[in-house]
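PROTEIN DESIGN WORKSHEET
SECTION A - STRUCTURE
LENGTH: 367
TOKENS:
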């Protein structure tokens, strides 16, 4: 059965009030668990007693705990000095200590990612996929080699490192990495909003990734044409372009937590530079069908905005109002509970649903 949880990184008050407070808030909202972006949120020193106390507090509230560890791109690791410090100057050792500490506390699903979003830059260079000092294919090769070193650690600890569909990487690339290193130690954290930054149709992206999806980041998306191409913005579940019953169907009946990742001060505009030849060359797996679907979703959203039934570009770019971040989580949780309750539960029902979606996807002019 799918669970509905929340991501700590965008929960109002969590950084100041701590892990136990957040667990209590999640329980009060009727959620099933908390995904902590870093295991260090449970104990800065990886103290076994502190970690155990946090997990036991969650269990007492009937909550699942998932947590993150360091990222896995050697070309980006210098941006995570806390992990290197944990390893006395050795990043891999620091990561190993995080993995083992989490496993010893009973946390088995561990988030990781392949790069960082560079907020000090704009345009292409905000995304590490477009670094000019090291190519993205070279970064991918280094990531796979590094994960080859991490795999025995994860295997011995009995955990999965679940790599996020982060802004810089595609599901095509993630699936190749998981299959090369081993699905016994790697999984995918499926972020429903980030796949659109790479111009992936969320439904096709989920079907590609689904065999390896073990954790999630859940939020809906608004799309709008901008001077840079297409802008992606975050909305509560059910208010954007994602077909949620179809997207969640491949996960139906699985014990996966749908972790709501909210907003803070903005709706996190990110751009698809679809008119930039450099951007297009950097997506060798992108098909015309998938790109056209993203354009269709953008036009459909803009039609809703023009009719006044969805926020337009001006409203999407406006500052987030007080109280909006918590309401984002509440509304997303409410809609996700409805969706989970309505999903087919048996294997045969899921197969029939998938067949129906395939037939529908193949029809021209699908709306």
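SECTION B - SEQUENCE
RESIDUE ASSIGNMENT:
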């Amino acid at each position: 059965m799918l669970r509905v949880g929340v991501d700590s990184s965008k929960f109002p008050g969590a950084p100041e009030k701590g892990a136990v407070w957040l667990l209590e808030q999640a329980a009060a909202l009727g959620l099933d668990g908390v995904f902590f972006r870093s295991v260090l949120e449970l104990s800065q020193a990886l103290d076994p007693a502190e970690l155990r106390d946090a997990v036991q507090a969650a269990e007492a509230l009937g909550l699942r705990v998932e947590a993150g560890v360091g990222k896995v791109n050697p070309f980006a690791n210098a941006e995570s000095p806390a992990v290197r410090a944990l390893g006395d100057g050795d990043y891999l050792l620091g990561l190993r200590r995080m993995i083992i500490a989490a496993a010893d506390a009973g946390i088995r699903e561990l988030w990781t990612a392949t790069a960082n979003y560079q907020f000090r830059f704009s345009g292409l260079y905000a995304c590490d996929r477009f670094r000019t000092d090291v190519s993205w294919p070279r970064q991918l090769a280094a990531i796979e080699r590094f994960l080859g070193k991490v795999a025995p650690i994860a295997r011995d600890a009995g955990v999965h490192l679940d790599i996020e569909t982060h802004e810089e990487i595609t599901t095509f690339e993630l699936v190749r990495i998981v299959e090369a290193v081993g699905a016994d130690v790697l999984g995918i954290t499926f972020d429903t909003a980030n796949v659109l930054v790479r111009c992936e149709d969320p439904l096709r992206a989920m079907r590609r990734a689904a065999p390896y999806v073990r954790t999630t980041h859940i939020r809906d998306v608004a799309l709008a044409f901008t001077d840079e191409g297409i802008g992606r913005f975050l909305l509560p579940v059910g208010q954007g372009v994602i077909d949620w019953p179809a997207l969640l169907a491949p996960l139906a009946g699985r014990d996966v937590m749908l972790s709501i990742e909210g907003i803070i001060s903005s709706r996190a505009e990110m751009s698809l530079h679809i008119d930039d030849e450099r951007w297009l060359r950097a997506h060798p797996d992108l098909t015309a069908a998938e790109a056209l679907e993203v354009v269709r979703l953008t036009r459909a959203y803009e039609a809703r905005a023009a009719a006044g039934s969805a926020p337009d570009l001006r409203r999407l770019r406006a500052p987030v109002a007080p109280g909006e971040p918590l309401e984002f989580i509440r509304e997303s949780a409410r809609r996700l509970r409805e969706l989970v309750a309505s999903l087919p539960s048996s294997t045969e029902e899921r197969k029939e649903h998938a067949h129906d979606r395939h037939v529908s996807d193949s029809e021209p002019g699908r709306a």
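SECTION C - NOTES
The chain has 14 helices and eleven strands.
The two ends are 30 Å apart (CA to CA).
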